[in-house]
Amino acid sequence: MRQRRKQDSRRVTVKDLAKDLGMSVSTVSRAFYPDAVIAEPTRKTVLERAAELGYRPNPFAQSLITKRTQIAGMVVSDLTNPFYPEVMTQMLARLQAVGMNVMLAAANEPDQTDEAVDLLLSYQPDLLIVLAVTLSSHAWEKCEQGGTPCIFFNRLSANGQGFGISCDNEMGGRQVADFLIDTGHRNLLYVSAFPDASTNVERYAGFRARTIERGLAEPEVLEAGLFTYEAGYQAGLNMAHLKGKIDGVFCANDIVAIGFMEGAQAGSGLRVPDDLSVVGFDDITMAGWPSHELTTVPQPLEDMMEAIVGLALELSNSSARPSQKIHCFAPGKMIIRNSTRSRVQTSKDLSYA
Amino acid sequence: MRQRRKQDSRRVTVKDLAKDLGMSVSTVSRAFYPDAVIAEPTRKTVLERAAELGYRPNPFAQSLITKRTQIAGMVVSDLTNPFYPEVMTQMLARLQAVGMNVMLAAANEPDQTDEAVDLLLSYQPDLLIVLAVTLSSHAWEKCEQGGTPCIFFNRLSANGQGFGISCDNEMGGRQVADFLIDTGHRNLLYVSAFPDASTNVERYAGFRARTIERGLAEPEVLEAGLFTYEAGYQAGLNMAHLKGKIDGVFCANDIVAIGFMEGAQAGSGLRVPDDLSVVGFDDITMAGWPSHELTTVPQPLEDMMEAIVGLALELSNSSARPSQKIHCFAPGKMIIRNSTRSRVQTSKDLSYA
DNA sequence: CTGAAAGCGCTTACAG
DNA sequence: CTGAAAGCGCTTACAG
């Protein structure tokens, strides 16, 4: 038992394979690189035998030389927002399909982030994908100085840092304003989540701008503070303290909206959509559940996924940096469910007022 | 621009550090191994200077020699069940805290699993953590022959394969039976999820056995088939086709229970808890939301987390295999919420019948 | 306690 | 088109 576990079942190496085939190590190695200069029949022979013996180049040895790791580091913080597991699932599958491996770092507490990112960076990932609301400036510096490109998903980088993939949140906010106003809502409210998040800021900006353009009063704002169910719920409870009569609500995202609806019901007995229309953002699976039936703006996930995989591939395989830093896609068409109701007064309804 | 990106900003290596300190490479290297023979003051000097220069041993070069990678491979399939993101978050944080990195493989489609696991295994993780319902036998063989230990989380391995960490699901099922019977329920139903999953099988076994022990008729069974909201919802709809009057329902897990409650309401107008008591399993965050208020059996996550980190550490740092293969913890105390109601008839209530 | 040397499994100029 | 050789950044017997 003195031997090391991993050595017991020795893995086959280039040397073994070369000897087996009566070729040089160099030739065998070349067979695995599409661009390498090697006779096609030779390559075929090598690849076939490799498959038989179960040989795979050792990625550690490979990376030591090539400085490429085929690893994408992924920083996540907000797995309680169902949007992210949904995104991760798709992203993982696609990255896997192009041969990239994903190494995960959780950044639940802001102070954990640095250590987590350091750990990640020591594996020299070809790129970092940030699914978190925040990346500490320390962590960002580390990436910079290590030459590791960052992709910020669903969040525009603060100062033009790194690459960004997101949907046009402002346009989404405008769509919601138009929708609510077109369906007869006149007293609007925005339920704000994490104040520094670009998604939050932009959605509000679009919503507010369009509301004013359409000649209504500036929307009220309720600060939930976080992108969580609990924050939304608390904001819903706080509806009680709001003076004006609100008839249309836009929440920073779906999970906040879902919490908000329940909080409003619990706190002030407000019923959705009878007393209040509520709109979310993202179109997470839960938004379609019968218990919520949330009207929402869907993220253009298909586009965003294609962009991120394309970018990841470029960043890990070519030496030139991609020129386009920001990919911003129009949101999908609003999905109208049962959390909103038209308040347009037909002539018959005029008795009301 | 002909140079490679990663080479531009050269990372500091042992050599650099050794030269800087006027020591040999060997000595510098030893400073990073607690068990290595090295004068304590020397070690201190090295470590300090390393921190200043931002030196970290290159894990790829390290692994090439030590055959240890400090990588835990994680196979996930079921991120739509909120239980898993919750588990992942905690597990990630804890593994990070002990210096392990997590490499992720998604196994959404059964046929993707093999390729994903292969990719993962080529990085020679010290161990594999399986959070998925299923690991193909091909994948398992690969682990075996590569000497990579597997830990199955929340699922007992089929044929004594690998290590298992789970809660005592059968005991949980028994608790639910006792609880429902004690609170006056007499006509019980089990909503079954994925038939091959050990969690599903054991929870049912315990529930059924205890029901019979208590002298009631065997519980009815409704096959949802999957651990998903949608499957639970469908099962709820199917309540309509059930002949007998059911008053107490145990669902394979929380997400199924939540779907079930809504399906039962939508399909047959059955109200929880007035017409029906419903119990879940896991205690996911959502179970506590006002819209669900689900009575449930909590998993002993604290215990399970400690066990998995302990096991991971043993497997990645020592050469001896841990002796205990199965860690099975008693579930937590049932959490009684509003999805269940006592149906014990006090003398006053006897008018009802 | 420290250093010189071998070697982990690869890739890639450099010759031929 | 193929092979011999150097070297990626580290660790670890082996001497001293």
From TrEMBL, chains A, B:
Q: Which residues form the HTH lacI-type domain?
A: 12-66
Q: What keywords sit in the KW lines?
A: DNA-binding, Transcription, Transcription regulation
Q: Which PROSITE patterns match?
A: HTH_LACI_2 (PS50932)
- Pfam families recorded: LacI, Peripla_BP_3
- A GO MF label: DNA binding
InterPro entries given for it? Answer: HTH_LacI (IPR000843), LacI/GalR-like_sensor (IPR046335), Lambda_DNA-bd_dom_sf (IPR010982), Peripla_BP_I (IPR028082)
Q: Which PANTHER family match?
A: HTH-TYPE TRANSCRIPTIONAL REGULATOR GALS, LACI-RELATED TRANSCRIPTIONAL REPRESSOR
Q: What is this protein called?
A: LacI family DNA-binding transcriptional regulator
Q: Which organism is it from?
A: Aquamicrobium segne
Species lineage, top-down?
Bacteria, Pseudomonadati, Pseudomonadota, Alphaproteobacteria, Hyphomicrobiales
